[in-house]
Structures are given as structure tokens and as C-alpha cells.
Design goal:
37% helix; 20% strand
Length: 325
């Protein structure tokens, strides 16, 4: 019995101390996500619109009009009569005294009075309207904004991969006009690849302007963590990693592109669930941004290194929220 107990204890110790398999062998474990994050990727964009001065709605300035000139009332003039006799003293006199009533010699025009009253009423109405406008501007001072993100997995194309890199190198990432053009040019590239669309995802966040910048940064950070940045062009600074070794796989056939945009106001609606027509609507909605309402933009794609491509297993396990188009 003692020997049997000893062998049981040794067997249990061996099982406990046996090295466990690496997490990367489990497709659903965290090691699988970290393996996907070792792929190459590129990103380009900026957030110049958030640092631009924000103009608050102001009350229009009203210059007072000159006061109307009205004829002033003039006293009536009465003819003077000579006294009789001329040499007689004024007092004492046998003539009765003459009393003058104040104001009896002036004549007011009723039409001018009505005109003045009308001007006063109109001025008071304008002042009340300006006060209501000021109150409305104070209540709506918190400008609304929208942050949208589109992920699109398309069949791998060396031409599309090279065009994305060329588009990123030529982009002006230090101006809102350049950021709006970046989204437009990327949308054009993807619209030309409609035959290769396979998976996609579109999400929208709406809120105040101050919180929109935080939401944009959160989504951009999440996107950057999904691959090794072999190329990055952000707000005028370019970083290229030349020591990366491509990891080409025989069954790799997908390229994942992410478009991230923050605008002041709202974007056109997109039909859900997301299908090919929904992807087209999403691309057109993002391309509808202009330099006047663009706050920030970011375009990322993975893999970025030539010859690399994602497998279908990479897509389904690395980005489980992608919808089949």
C-alpha cells in the first residue's frame, strides 16, 4: 500500500509539473491575437481639426440707424399792434390785462408722434430678438460631432497595397484639407476593388466635441495595436521600419483596410446589416467630409509589407466582428 501511495503521489507531481502547451497553439487564446499583431501594417493621418480655434456662435452686430429728423414745432407769431396813444404810459391803463397760457402757442403734428412711437416699438422688438438669440446660443454651445470607423477586408492585390502606401506618402497630414483628401483618395481606391470585398464592419459614435477626440484616439490606438507599424505618416512625421522580416503564408489572400474619421456634425446614414451596398454607402458617407467639418482622419492597412497577406482564419479570429458581405 505504501508503494502504491508513493507511485500515486509521483504521478500527480509529474502531471502538475508537466509544461503546458504554449498559448499560441490555441486558436482562441490570447496568443493567437498576438500572433496576428506580428503582421506588418501601415498608418497615415492626423488630428489637426481638433487643435483649430473653435468659433462660438456670436450675436450679429447691429449698427443703430441715424435718428430721423422731424420738423420741430414752432410757436405761432401774432402781429404786433401799435398802442394808442403812442406817448401814453403802459400802466395804469384802462385796457384789461392779457394772460398768456404756456404751450398755447405751439402746434404738435400727430403723424410725427405716431412715427416716433413706431420706431420705439420696432427697436424694443429687435432687442428682445437679440436676447432670445443669445440665450439660444448659450444653450447650444456644446457642438455635436461624429466619429466613424470602417473596416473592409478585400482580396489581396499588390496594386492596392502599393497604392495605399503611395497615397500615404503623398498625403498632407498637417491640414484639414489634406486629411479630407486622404479619406477621399482612399475611398476611391477601395471603390475600384468592389469585386474583391469579402468582410466588413462599420460603427459610429456621436457626442460632444471634447469627447470626440478621446474616442478617436481610443479607436486609433486599438487599430495601431493590431499590427507592427512598418510605415507610419502622422501629422507630418514619417517613420519607416526597415528591419521587419515579411511573414508570407501560402494561403494568405486578404488585405484589411481601416478608415477612421471624426467630423463636426453628423454623417449620412448607412444601411445595416452591412452588405456590399452598405459598404458603398459607408465609403460615400466618409468621402462626404470636407475641410470645413473634418476634425481628424486615419487610414491603416495590414499587411503593409509586399508579399504578405492575411488568411481567412486570421480575419475570423483576429476581428470576430467582421460581417460577411
Amino acid at each position: 500500500m505504501r508503494r502504491t501511495g508513493v507511485w500515486v503521489l509521483l504521478l500527480l507531481w509529474a502531471l502538475v509539473s508537466w509544461p503546458s502547451s504554449p498559448a499560441g497553439n490555441s486558436l482562441g487564446g490570447p496568443g493567437w491575437s498576438s500572433a496576428i499583431a506580428q503582421r506588418s501594417g501601415g498608418g497615415v493621418g492626423g488630428r489637426g481639426g481638433f487643435s483649430a480655434p473653435r468659433s462660438s456662435p456670436s450675436i450679429p452686430r447691429v449698427n443703430p440707424s441715424p435718428a430721423p429728423s422731424l420738423p420741430l414745432p414752432t410757436p405761432r407769431r401774432y402781429p404786433s399792434y401799435p398802442t394808442y396813444p403812442p406817448s401814453a404810459p403802459g400802466y395804469p391803463s384802462t385796457r384789461p390785462p392779457v394772460f398768456v397760457t404756456p404751450g398755447a402757442g405751439y402746434n404738435f403734428d400727430p403723424i410725427a408722434l405716431v412715427f416716433i412711437v413706431g420706431i420705439v416699438v420696432v427697436s424694443l422688438s429687435m432687442l428682445r430678438g437679440l436676447q432670445r438669440a443669445a440665450a439660444g446660443a448659450g444653450a447650444g454651445s456644446e457642438l455635436e460631432s461624429t466619429v466613424a470607423r470602417l473596416r473592409l477586408a478585400t482580396l489581396y492585390s499588390p496594386q492596392l497595397q502599393a497604392s495605399l502606401r503611395h497615397n500615404a506618402e503623398a498625403a498632407d497630414t498637417e491640414s484639414v484639407r489634406g486629411l479630407a483628401d486622404l479619406i477621399d483618395n482612399t475611398a476611391v481606391l477601395l471603390l475600384r476593388e468592389q469585386a474583391g470585398w469579402r468582410y466588413g464592419m462599420y460603427e459610429v459614435w456621436m457626442g460632444s466635441l471634447d469627447k470626440a477626440e478621446g474616442q478617436f484616439d481610443a479607436w486609433m490606438t486599438e487599430t495601431r495595436s493590431e499590427f507592427v507599424e512598418t510605415y507610419r505618416h502622422f501629422e507630418g512625421k514619417e517613420v519607416v521600419q526597415g528591419a521587419y522580416q515579411p511573414r508570407a503564408e501560402p494561403d494568405g489572400r486578404y488585405l484589411l483596410v481601416t478608415l477612421l474619421l471624426a467630423v463636426r456634425g453628423s454623417l449620412p446614414p448607412v444601411a445595416t446589416p452591412l452588405r456590399r451596398e452598405g459598404v458603398r454607402q459607408a465609403l460615400m458617407a466618409l468621402a462626404s467630409s470636407s475641410p470645413t467639418n473634418t476634425l481628424a482622419a486615419y487610414v491603416a492597412w495590414t499587411p503593409e509589407s509586399e508579399g504578405e497577406a492575411l488568411t481567412e482564419q486570421d480575419l475570423l479570429l483576429g476581428w470576430p466582428r467582421l460581417e460577411l458581405l
